[in-house]
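Fold this complex.
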Amino acid sequence: MNKKLELKRLLIYLAFSFGLAYAWFFITNMKFETWQEMSSAKESFIALGMLAPLLAHILTRLVTKEGFKLYGKDSMMFGISLKDKKWIFFVLAIILPWIYIELGNVLTILFFRELYDPEYYLKLEIDKRILYIYPLAAIISGVFASFAAFGEEAGWRGYMMPKLLKLFGAEGEGKGAFRGRILAVIIGGIIWGLWHAPLTCTGHNFGTDYPGFPYVGIARMCLFCTLIGIMLTFITVKSGSVWPAAIMHAVLNSGPSILNGYINTDLATTWVTKYYSGVWQLLVLIVLAAICLKLLSGKKVPAKA
Amino acid sequence: MGGLLYKDFVSIKGKALSITFIVLVILFLVFRVIFSGNYINENFMAVTEAGEMVNMLDVIFLTILPSVLYVFIMLVSFCFNKTVVYDEKNKVRSYMLALPLDKKKYVASKYIFVGILTYVFLSLYYILLVINNAFMSDVERLVNSANLCMAIAVPSMCLVLIMHMVDIPFNLLFGNVKARTFQTIFWLMVGFAVVAFFLFGDLEILDKWDFLKLIEWADKHAFELTVVSILSPVISLLLFYLSYRITVFFYERKEGMDE
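Structure:
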């Protein structure tokens, strides 16, 4: 493998991806409104920037003449194969985000009791019956409207991660390969987190009211992206397709949870519960990411991913 | 399987079609930016029953969008039809009989192709809606209408799957000519029913039709609508899969006889 060439290709991809997305985020929010000030229509419009990594992937392949193979080694990984029980990864993609969010919420309620508000869903103007079936609705809408998440995953998991795994020698076996995998997912997560920086600066994900805004938010986003990135890389590598990752990302974005309707962060009395109520979700995410990293290292990583 | 799907993609001139749609989306974006709802021109303003000022540009775009959805539904059908005509014209099935290829795969490729088209057109529709909503003035009635446009997307695409649940087996088992004849008869009957309604039906229903009432009804029955939005894709996908299994069963018998 020519490492220099792979690095050059990766840098071209990153230039396209960051350039296109940052330009989009800037053009669509020239007034520098915060996420809280925006209408939901404008939020969705800005979120179309999620298609930038897909465009960057296509443009990079055009520039580098890598071809547009849909499945297999060095492909775009757009194809789907359900052979060898690979359908399991689709099921995991649907269920994992729900499990992670709900488990995190259970821990939040257990350890941050003050945030538990049995009537919070009423303030959200949600019918209790809808609250109970909301995760299913979120999963269905996530799967059907996964094009935006597909836009991101096609770039990050479909192009960047295979290149990083190659560059860090993560394709083989042994300690060196394992270290390579860890380095690849950490660097990939940081890049992905930094890509979100313009949105984090507008208050997307964490709001604007926290100490160290926006730098702490960007750092938190990098950490979050690293952990989620491990899970997404795991299912992409194992399934050989970016579709399970796209579905997982879409389901995660639609936030399937019942307990969210019972956690009211306005009730926080200490700075820990006010600014770091999500710490328990993060803990669950760390455990899940560790499991995925371990499973990712179980067998030799195929060259195609 | 990938090869079969690629054949279908080529037969509908997929590359040209993709470029056309990308250009159309960009054009729509340009038009929406030029004719933004936030641009207030007194000649374009109208007042609703609730006394809200509504920009007619927004109304025009909101009227176009559901029609676009139904154009997309027709396009899925048109593209599928084109692949079958291409296969019959080029004797693809006879050629495939000579290959060590599972007959199931040919049938599956048609179902998957329709599934992919449905997903692509649904995504395109969402993109158009997002663009439209971003440049729409923030009037409650318009926002409600836009939400309704969003809400009908998935059930409409489920309708596509249900339509093709019948269309695919008809085309594969009886040939394109017979399938088209059946489809024409079906739509003619629907057309006659509409004409009969206008001739002999109670047209007062149309006078009583109130869009606001529909939105109020949707607000009141939010739970039931959520259940429908969950169940309709699941049920239609299950029926689609069932249709695939039945078609495979009959197709294998039919091709076996042809052999």
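Residues 3-295 of chain A form one domain.
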